[in-house]
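To close the section, here is one more complete example, presented without commentary so you can practise reading it yourself. The ligand is thiamine diphosphate.
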Amino acid sequence: MAASTWLYRRALVGSRGISSHIKKLPSNFKALRLCSSSSGDEYQDDKPRFPGALNSYYTEKLEFDDPDDGEAIPVYRVMDRNGKVFNEAHDPKLDKETIQDMYKKMTLLNTMDRILYESQRQGRISFYMTNYGEEATHFGSAAALLPEDVVLGQYREAGVLMWRGFTLDDFMNQCYANQNDLGKGRQMPVHYGEKNLNFVTISSPLATQMPQASGYGYAVKRAGTGNCVICYFGEGAASEGDAHAAFNFAATLEAPVIFFCRNNGYAISTPTSDQYRGDGIAGRGRGYGMKAIRVDGNDVFAVYNVTKAARKIVVEQSQPIMVEAMTYRIGHHSTSDDSSVYRSLKEVNY
Ligand SMILES: Cc1ncc(C[n+]2csc(CCOP(=O)(O)OP(=O)(O)O)c2C)c(N)n1
Ligand SMILES: [Mg+2]
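Output:
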């Protein structure tokens, strides 16, 4: 049954619910056309009032919406490859101390990765995952948040935790699962968590953090603290059903969640070309009724600006936002992976 016919019948029987809704509809409501014997000319300016697409309009052209029409979402950047800022107005003008702190922590993260990666190779720990190549996504986003904003991560966001104050000892204790480990040795290495830093413990099954983030965001909204939730995830995790549930719940509940995708080109050995069609992850924002932006994830100032602007919108307007940070996973997926089997050294060294 056509939706308009159904609505019309419901209006006639005057039942509760939808009929009361119908009374609010304009007098030239589409259903009237069903009872009219006129040519319909007088309804040329009418707007469709189907409840499922209130912003649509009528057309007499039979055309499919084509994802290949129009331009792809651009990649926002602030600096060129040599660190030169294109437009002074976009320089976040962070103080020297903060910039140095970011830089030092990026190199510290690299050093920690090397030591822990080699610890695994020496058989001292069971597993490890490096963060090489994605440092700017971590520090750029973490620096733009407040410490009270809650982080739900995937696993490759050690820099976010480092920025918040997780110490080298904390990292080591967790990876070595010793008596000082905050997780009491119950988790695999890199499954960090620290309540005092508002960093929810990492869990291995992909995308579980995503619907949790939507729920947490809704709770934060109800609590009215003026904070937000940031949910980090890989573009591979975005192929999980839980990702859809998370986006849709957050959008409809208007929860203050920044969905921060680290699009690093691979989900273990699966390249993005085998992972999705359409305009990446940012391209999905519109489908969920979410603002979205794509950013150069290797440009720390661009990531900072985008996260700061996203935070303002999600908190002030109470709605989720999709951020897609374009980057590249330089290391192997984990110590259980050998990426030379599925990608060339030339690609990695680009
Ligand atoms: C439900 C589930 N399926 C499969 C896996 C195995 N797995 C672990 S990481 C990973 C790839 C995830 O890729 P992505 O989300 O892009 O994150 P990245 O590793 O690139 O940072 C897969 C398939 C898992 N942990 N959980
Ligand atoms: Mg990935």
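Once you have examined the tokens, check your reading against these statements. The longest strand covers residues 257-263. Residues 77 and 93 are 15 Å apart (CA to CA).
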